[in-house]
Design goal:
By secondary structure, the chain is an alpha/beta fold. The chain contains eleven helices and ten strands. The radius of gyration is 17 Å and the shape is globular. The structure holds adenosine-5'-diphosphate (ADP) and magnesium ion. The site of adenosine-5'-diphosphate (ADP) has 10 residues, from helix 1.
């Protein structure tokens, strides 16, 4: 579904990604693990068009998307729920969600689809948002805003969903809820690339994982295998020997 080869990216003169190889097969959850500053967010930004790659290829459903503007990549079927909470604080929760479907309405490249049905499905997945749908997004707690960002990405009705640290800054109970929701999305067949500080939980929900070190893939394999890899355990799962 998503196939990345030799992906390179830079901020000005500083090269951050040095040739990433990564695949996200249809219906699978793939996780990208790495320390702070390894380049996980940069990888996601390069895929979704928020940052123009300096090299390599990115295929989404067989179509080349590397270097296309973000709105075109979204239209082809990729949604990115970025790091941090990017909601429109002075719009209601419901309007934030409807704005998520806006790209698909305006550009019309994908079927208009059943926006009301998608809204219902998103609100089913996030009951907290259903309760608060007529509240201004700026009045939600940080955790709820994070969920709103995720739900809004889903409103694009994407073929592939990129989730960058969806549990960042959340209370433990909400972290659990976010992982529960990721599990439900997986059951529904959603193809996802997941970046998470809770690497053990990410590997538990994922089918496959990649470890990113200094802008390069250091190790990759089935999630189960990475979970049992002594080096991965020591470096990323906080488990000695
Ligand atoms: N906007 C930016 N301008 C310049 N350097 C950046 C910018 N964003 C990130 N970087 C640098 O790129 C590297 C990778 O960052 P990032 O992709 O955010 O890592 P991660 O998400 O794995 O923590 C880091 O060295 C970081 O300092
Ligand atoms: Mg990051």
């Amino acid at each position: 579904m998503l196939e990345i080869n030799h992906l390179k990216a830079a901020y000005g003169q500083v090269q951050v990604l040095h040739g990433i190889e990564l695949k996200v097969p249809k219906g699978q959850v793939v996780t990208l693990i790495g320390s702070n500053g390894a380049g996980k967010t940069t990888t996601m930004r390069a895929i979704s068009g928020m940052l123009k790659p300096t090299g390599g290829s990115i295929l989404l459903g067989g179509k080349s998307i590397a270097g296309l503007p973000a709105h075109r990549i979204a239209r082809i079927g990729l949604a990115h729920s970025p790091e941090g909470r990017r909601v429109f604080p002075t719009q209601t929760v419901r309007d934030n969600l409807l704005l998520g479907a806006f790209t698909r309405l305006t550009f019309g490249g994908r079927p208009r689809g059943d926006i009301r049905g998608d809204l219902d499905r998103a609100l089913d997945l996030f009951p907290r948002l259903r309760e608060r749908q007529f509240q201004l997004a700026g009045t939600l707690s940080g955790g709820e805003q994070q969920m709103l960002a995720m739900a809004r990405a889903l409103m694009l009705n994407p073929d592939v969903l990129l989730l960058d640290e969806p549990s960042m800054g959340l209370a433990p109970i909400l972290v659990e809820e976010v992982f529960h929701i990721i599990g439900r999305l997986k059951e529904q067949g959603m193809t996802m690339l997941l970046v998470e500080q809770f690497a053990a939980a990410a590997l538990a929900v994922a089918d496959y994982g990649y470890v990113l070190e200094n802008g390069r893939i250091a190790v990759h394999g089935p999630a189960e295998q990475l979970r049992n890899d002594p080096k991965v355990r020591a470096a990323y799962l906080g488990i000695a020997h």
